[in-house]
Every structure is written in structure tokens, then in C-alpha cells.
């Protein structure tokens, strides 16, 4: 496995990977690939933390090694927390993080994320928060954000939100502050521009959208 920065030539392959990784996971179909497509020109995007994981394709013995296959990707974004006194406190988030379905549950996602977090520390990034499954992300050092008095904008202030996680990368960066986090606006681009998203989605091969257990708002 090799982890490197994403290049322009990778864009379509990575967007297709992201689509495959998220299809029918949180909703029928997905929008994460469009978020990524639009985010690369967003001022909150951090190109120094835009990584792909690739696996070398083995040749047939006559042509040697073929082109690498991208099996994972993660991107990071600037964010902020609104402190209780109204101050905008700088923070960061990441996602989408994608692993091709054929390589999931084999440790590749954790390896990719830990690599990216180490690079974020080297850049002086002090605090990460994100939405995800604590069962997985605790292995990368995350815990419930509520334990750090970071509240999620869409939940009651006194809630222990099980999917909202945080990690301090620089000891003491967050300190004893308290505030509320809302994901950067760039993550809502598909909902805000549905016609543009549908036009973009039409450039990919058609896939069946399914309503499945575990998706947001699923009811039998």
C-alpha cells in the first residue's frame, strides 16, 4: 500500500471510489462524491491533507507492474466552533473518508486515517471533530465531543451525541472552553443545489437507489 497526495489526474477515479463507498449507506444513493467534487475549489479545503491510498496492480508476468489502483481517500477541511461568548474558534474536520467496498474491514481505513492525522499534527492542526461511529473512530483517538464540552448544532445542548466525536491533536489547544459546532457549509452543497447535483450524478453509470435499514430516517 502507498499513501500519497491526490493529484488532478486522480479526481474522477477518486470521486467514483467515493460514490462506490457511500452508495446506499446513509441514504438511497449518496452525495459524498459531489461534496468532494465541489470542495476542491472551496477555500476551506486543505490540499496538503488530501490523500489517496493506492494498491499496486500486479501484471501478468510479461508487462511487469501495471498502474496503481486507488482504494482509499480522505480529505480535510477548515472548520470553526462558536464559543459561548460568540467568538469563532478555529478548528478542523475531515471527510468524506472512503475505502473501496472490496477492501473494507481489513484495516485500510484506519491506516489511512492515522497517517492523515499524523500529517495534520505536523501542520499544527490542534483540534478535529467529525460525525461517525465511535466503535471505529476510537481506534484513531476520537471520543465523544460532549466530554470536551463541544456541542453539536442539531442536538440539544445537554445531549451526549453518540455520533459526534472530537480529538485534541495539540495538548491544551481546546482548554476549558465550551461551544457549538456546525459542519462547514461546503458539506451541504448537494442539498443546496439539487439540480446541479443531479446533473453531475447523471455523468456516472446508473446504480439502483435502495432504502435500507441503518440509513438516516429509515422506517420499516
Query: Helicity range of the residues?
Result: 10-25%
User: Using only CA atoms, what is the Rg?
Assistant: 18 Å
Please outline the major beta sheet.
6 strands, mixed
Can you count the beta strands?
A: 9
Shape: globular
Structural class: alpha+beta
* Unreliable parts: 61-65
Compute the separation of the termini in Å.
Answer: 41 Å
Discrete helix count: 6
Write the SSE topology.
Blueprint (H helix, E strand, L loop, with lengths): L1 E4 L5 H12 L9 H8 L11 E8 L6 E19 L4 E12 L8 H15 L4 E5 L2 H4 L5 E2 L5 E3 L11 E5 L10 E3 L7 H4 L1 H8 L19
Parallel strand pairs: 7-9
Antiparallel strand pairs: 1-2, 2-3, 3-4, 3-9, 5-8, 6-8
Keyword list:
220 residues; alpha+beta; 6 helices; 23% helix
Describe the structure.
The chain has about 220 residues and is an alpha+beta fold. The protein is globular and about 50 Å long. The protein has 6 helices and 9 strands. A hairpin with a 6-residue loop joins β2 (about 50-60) and β3. The strands form 2 sheets. Strands 1, 2, 3, 4, 7 and 9 form a 6-stranded mixed beta sheet that branches. The relative contact order is 0.17. α1 packs antiparallel against α2 (about 30-40). It has helices spanning about 10-20, 30-40, 110-120, 135, 190, 195-200; strands at about 1-5, 50-60, 65-85, 90-100, 125-130, 145, 150, 165-170, 180.
Summarize, please.
The protein is of the alpha+beta class. The protein has 6 helices and 9 strands.
Amino acid at each position: 500500500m502507498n499513501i500519497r497526495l491526490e493529484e488532478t489526474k486522480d479526481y474522477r477515479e477518486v470521486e467514483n471510489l467515493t460514490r462506490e463507498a457511500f452508495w446506499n449507506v446513509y441514504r438511497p444513493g449518496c452525495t459524498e462524491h459531489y461534496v468532494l467534487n465541489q470542495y476542491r475549489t472551496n477555500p476551506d479545503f486543505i490540499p496538503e491533507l488530501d490523500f489517496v491510498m493506492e494498491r499496486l496492480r500486479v501484471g501478468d508476468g510479461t508487462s511487469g507492474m501495471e498502474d496503481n489502483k486507488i482504494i482509499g481517500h480522505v480529505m480535510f477541511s477548515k472548520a470553526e466552533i462558536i464559543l459561548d461568548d460568540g467568538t469563532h474558534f478555529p478548528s478542523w474536520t475531515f471527510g468524506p473518508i472512503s475505502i473501496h467496498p472490496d477492501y473494507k474491514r481489513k484495516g485500510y481505513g484506519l491506516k489511512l486515517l492515522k497517517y492523515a492525522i499524523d500529517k495534520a499534527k505536523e501542520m499544527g492542526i490542534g483540534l478535529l471533530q467529525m460525525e461517525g461511529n465511535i466503535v471505529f473512530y476510537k481506534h484513531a483517538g476520537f471520543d465523544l465531543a460532549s466530554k470536551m464540552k463541544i456541542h453539536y448544532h442539531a442536538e440539544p445542548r445537554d445531549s451526549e451525541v453518540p455520533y459526534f466525536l472530537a480529538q485534541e491533536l495539540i495538548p491544551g489547544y481546546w482548554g476549558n472552553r465550551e461551544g457549538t459546532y456546525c459542519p462547514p457549509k461546503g458539506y451541504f452543497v448537494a442539498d443546496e443545489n439539487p439540480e446541479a447535483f443531479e446533473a453531475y450524478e447523471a455523468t456516472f453509470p446508473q446504480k439502483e437507489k435502495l432504502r435500507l435499514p441503518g440509513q438516516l430516517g429509515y422506517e420499516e
